[in-house]
Design goal:
Number of domains: 4
Number of helices: 18
Shape: elongated
Radius of gyration: 31 Å
Oligomer: single chain
Number of strands: 31
Distance between the termini: 33 Å
CATH superfamily of the largest domain: Phosphoenolpyruvate-binding domains
Length: 626
């Protein structure tokens, strides 16, 4: 039996669909009209993009899935990739539907602000204005830029920045939460030197720290150090532990072979020779002996095949055979800070007062005497958090629910420890309040000070903790004060409030372009739930494409490769997904140069296969059949 197209049926279906598409178009123009006052405040060359964003917002206010299935049945666009030019796509669809219905379509009202071609061109143009041109190292021109967070070493090691730039880095990220102005200036100087040598420009992105919503410090358990030899699976010693003894008054740098360095008096070490022994009683009351194997200047290297627990003030004796040559004690050791152990059902107190955190205390009968407590660095939280609100620590590794808040102490019941029997809460870890609206400015006094410095040196400013248009306008006002409105601005989307206000944030950003968005996926996943992260990052990509604004894909991209030298399969898949953004951000690590090369290669390969969400059908090598 031969199947043929039923022209009459298609004509009838096309006529039935025309009113629904016309209604979508009408709603898009109505929403645009309600934002006329806002549109007048937007930079003139970004106004078509702002109008397109509003049209897309109107389109996504309706569930059009049944309509999409009907359109696919007619072999027409399903409206699945309308972001770049919404009104133009609807007009083209109406033209085709009218043609199928044997009619003529002529738009009678507002013309589309952009076409698919001009919308795509605007996105590319806005990306280049903010992030510069992408380089790449091969024949295929990659669309996606590579941003790299500078480690502290970038201030003192010019070769590191040179190698990163040669590997494919397009944007340097300076995190203003770390280091200081002296170090930042050295990083910038090293970058300028590398640019001259390689003949390649590179943008500087300064990430303002924003309000510090973190756990406070933890009370040290003491000044104790543990060192031990290496053992195999049978417990046999395979390498002795090397201990560097050096004068407390003038310590010498430890050699690479040393596992730990201990301070003692210069008089004690002056009598030491190779072959002598150092005796001590460790914190467990166990007698230990170390044999001196090398003497170097005023210091010596000794070895042991036992595990030692040593604290500040531990008595030491120097012996040559049975003869006691000298006695002394271990000098100051770094404080030992242990994380606070937490289990499901435990109580944790967040304190407004800046008290060092402590684990829970129990009396001699095992009953709870005092629950665990730790400070919260953001005082505004104590004025806003209410009982029943969720609280998350360390990117969501530990969950809790607020039981009480007396404005000085927030009482939290631990509800999840990330699949572990015991969660371990460390100092200076991030806190998220996904249910709480925190009324505070996104720019801190430190941010304003850092901005004054970076306005003279950076190309782009990153606004952390942006939640509302008022936050964006506050940064604009500071840039006007500093006569630095030419700088690009990146809004970091890292809270539930920011995500829910995304269209308004995008419109506010277009008052003073160039602008872009960074998806801070760690904090965002903690606030919204990991199960929602996939759809959330998709929605951000869609809305930013409709606004023709670039997106920076951030948080833990190729983290294993950067830190350990080998990527996981999940990370490689994540990189492929990241190619739909305009920029990918890498964090620091010992293998960061190799990571940039790897990312550059993947992005160049993907450039031949896809552009945003559109699959590009290049010739496949496996398609050749003999």
């Amino acid at each position: 039996m031969t199947m043929r197209l039923d022209i009459t049926e298609h004509t009838q279906r096309a006529r039935q669909l025309i009113p629904a598409i016309q209604e979508l178009r009408r709603r898009a123009l109505v929403l645009e009209q309600t934002y006329q006052a806002e549109l007048q405040l937007i930079a003139a060359d970004y106004r078509p993009s702002a109008r397109n964003l509003l049209h897309y917002l109107a389109l996504r206010q309706t569930d059009i899935r049944p309509l999409q299935r009907e359109l696919i049945g007619l072999s027409l666009t399903s409206l699945g990739v309308t972001e770049t030019a919404v009104l133009s796509t609807l007009d083209a669809l109406l033209y085709n539907l009218h043609a199928l219905a044997g009619e003529t379509y002529t738009p009678t009202d507002e013309e589309a602000p952009v076409t698919y071609q001009t919308g795509t061109m605007l996105l590319e143009q806005h990306t280049e204005q903010l992030l510069g041109q992408s380089a790449g190292n091969h024949a295929v021109k990659r669309r996606v830029r590579i941003m790299v967070t500078m480690p502290a070493e970038a201030a003192t090691d010019p070769r590191l920045i040179h190698d990163l730039l040669a590997a494919g880095m397009d944007v340097v990220r300076i995190n203003c939460a770390h280091d200081d102005q002296t170090a930042w200036l050295a990083m910038i100087a090293n970058l300028r030197q590398a640019e001259k040598k390689l003949g390649r420009p590179c943008k500087i992105y300064a990430d303002l720290a924003g309000p510090k919503l973190r756990t406070g410090l933890i009370k040290p358990a003491g000044r104790i150090v543990r060192y031990r030899p290496k053992r195999n699976y049978r417990g046999e010693v395979t390498a002795m532990c090397q201990v560097w003894f050096t004068p407390a008054t003038a310590p010498q740098p430890a050699p690479a072979a040393a596992d730990v360095a201990l301070l003692v008096s210069a008089d004690f070490l002056a009598l030491a020779e190779v072959g002598d022994a150092i005796h001590l009683e460790d914190t467990r009351g166990r007698y230990r002996q170390l044999q001196i194997t090398h003497k170097q200047g005023t210091s010596c290297l000794a070895e042991t095949d036992r595990t030692h627990y040593v604290e500040t003030g531990t008595a030491v004796r120097l012996l040559r055979g049975a003869e006691l040559l000298a006695a002394g004690e271990i000098g100051d050791l770094p404080p030992l800070v242990l994380p606070i152990p937490l289990q499901i059902g435990d109580t944790l107190i967040l304190t407004r007062a800046n008290l060092p955190g402590e684990a829970a205390h129990y009396d001699e009968t095992g009953r709870l005497a005092q629950p665990a407590h730790i400070a919260c660095t953001l005082k505004e939280a104590f004025n806003a958090v209410e009982p029943g609100h969720w609280i998350l620590f360390d990117d969501g590794k530990i969950h809790g629910r607020v039981l009480d808040n007396d404005r000085d102490n927030i009482t939290v019941e631990i509800t999840s420890t990330g699949g572990r029997s015991v969660g371990r809460l460390q100092a200076e870890k991030g806190i998220n309040f996904p249910d709480t609206t925190l009324n505070m400015p996104s720019l801190t006094a430190k941010d304003v000070e850092d901005l004054e410095f970076m306005a003279r040196h950076a190309d782009i400013i990153g606004l952390s903790f942006a939640r509302s248009p008022e936050d964006v306008h506050a940064l604009e006002d500071q840039l006007k004060r500093l006569q630095a409105t030419h700088l690009g601005v990146v809004l970091k989307i890292e809270t539930r409030q920011a995500f829910e206000n995304l269209p308004r944030l995008l419109l506010a950003a277009m008052h003073s372009p160039p602008d872009g968005i960074m998806v801070a996926r760690g904090d965002l996943a903690a606030e919204l739930g990991f199960e929602r992260m996939a759809e959330v990052q998709e929605e951000i990509l869609w809305f930013c494409e409709a606004a023709h604004l670039p997106v920076i894909w951030a948080t833990q991209v190729l983290e294993n490769l950067a830190k350990r030298g080998a990527p996981s399969r999940a990370e490689v898949t994540d990189v492929v997904m990241s190619s739909r953004a305009e920029c990918v951000m890498l964090n620091k690590g010992p293998y960061i140069v190799d990571t940039v090369r790897f990312l550059n290669d993947v992005l160049e390969r993907m450039a031949a296969h896809s552009a945003k969400r559109r699959i590009m059908l290049r010739r496949l090598s496996i398609s050749q059949v003999d």
